[in-house]
Design goal:
Blueprint (H helix, E strand, L loop, with lengths): L2 E14 L2 E14 L3 E5 L6 H8 L9 E3 L2 E4 L2 E2 L5 H7 L4 E4 L3 H4 L6 H13 L3 H14 L5 H4 L9 H13 L5 E5 L7 H18 L2 E6 L2 H7 L2 E6 L2 E7 H6 L4 H8 L39 H5 L5 E3 L3 E3 L14
């Protein structure tokens, strides 16, 4: 499969008065042509920082970024100038942010904001851009698209605003779209509609998708490959079906156990004990060991490497689990 994005050894730190915030530590990420890759983990694990670093949206300073390679569509972009990145963003690589209300300009109609995409990247006139905008809003399922194009963001519902962001992201048919928690503030019904639209647009346009989320139900319905992230590191990578059938890392097992199920006879809410460690005060050894029921002395002293298991799977654990909850070791 042709690779659209190859990220190698990304590290992002933020020097602060409280110490060095190690937000991302040595992350590798691969996204194939037309593939949907999910980056999953609890809040504060470094998912959003990773996606913003790929888009080169982090201010430096305060962020200090080191990366061996960001290869996008066959070319290296880690050393691109800000002007060169402006040409890439929107046209070849786009992002859907998690809060539509703060992502859209409140003093511009949504139509004018989408028009800018066509005028800036495709050289269309205002009239040509507006016709494309109306077609885009119609395509993503917004009712009365010509009238809605003249609405301001505050005049639309949360679901409508999120669809506007979808229309903006897909406007120039980019090679890669990064969706950062695109359904966080939506109710379940609207969430399902937005996800269906996102997946349909992705497949119809032949676009690759990086989906950043903490919601495993979203991952199960849309992703091809899953990266599980914890405290700035990738702890497991697997095809989505294999991950849900037999997770290897105890953290992944805990995330799945915390998802409420209709067939749960115990009627008991399961949670992972403790919290994600403070990024400036991470524990020694495996970062997950204070919360892991399987932790041994080796886990407390040594950081496990990310190693391959069963061919197309990777796990960062000294004692990875089998489907029966027993160690491979």
């Amino acid at each position: 499969m042709k690779q659209v994005l190859k990220l190698r050894n990304l590290k992002v730190v933020f020097p602060t008065g409280y110490g060095l915030i190690r937000a991302v530590e040595g992350v590798d990420l691969d996204i194939g042509d037309r593939e949907c890759v999910a980056l999953v983990g609890e809040s504060g694990c470094g998912k959003t920082v990773t996606s913003q670093a790929v888009m080169r949206l982090l201010e430096t300073p305060p962020a200090v970024i080191k990366v061996d390679s960001i290869e996008f569509d066959g070319r290296e972009i880690k050393d691109c100038t800000p002007k060169e990145m402006q040409e890439i963003r929107g046209k070849e690589m786009a992002m859907i942010f998690q809060d539509a209300m703060t992502s859209l300009n409140p003093v511009m109609t949504v139509g004018n904001q989408i028009d800018e995409m066509y005028m800036r990247h495709q050289g269309d006139s205002k009239k040509e851009a507006r016709e494309k905008t109306v077609r885009a809003l119609e395509l993503i399922g917004l009712p009365e698209p010509r009238a809605r194009a003249n609405s301001f963001p505050h005049q639309l519902s949360g679901g409508m605003r999120q669809r506007v962001l979808l229309a903006m992201a897909f406007a120039c048919m980019p090679k890669l779209i990064i969706a950062d928690e695109p359904t966080t503030a939506l109710d379940v019904t609207i969430q399902a509609q937005v996800l269906k639209t996102l997946r349909g647009m992705q497949q119809g346009c032949g676009t690759s998708l990086l989906l950043v989320t903490h919601d495993l139900s979203v991952v199960a319905s849309i992703a091809d490959t899953v990266y599980v992230m914890y405290s700035g590191k990738i702890v497991e990578k697997a095809p989505v079906k294999e991950l849900f059938t037999a997770p290897y890392h105890p953290y992944t097992v805990g995330l799945m156990a915390a998802v409420p199920r209709l067939d749960d006879e115990k009627r008991k809410f399961t949670q992972i004990p403790g919290t994600v460690p403070h990024p400036a005060r991470k524990p020694s050894g495996c970062y997950f060991h204070p919360r892991c029921q399987y932790a041994a002395e080796k886990c407390r002293k040594e950081m496990p490497p990310l190693r391959s298991l069963d061919g197309n799977r990777e796990v960062r654990c000294h004692y990875p689990l089998t489907a029966g909850g027993e160690s491979h070791e």
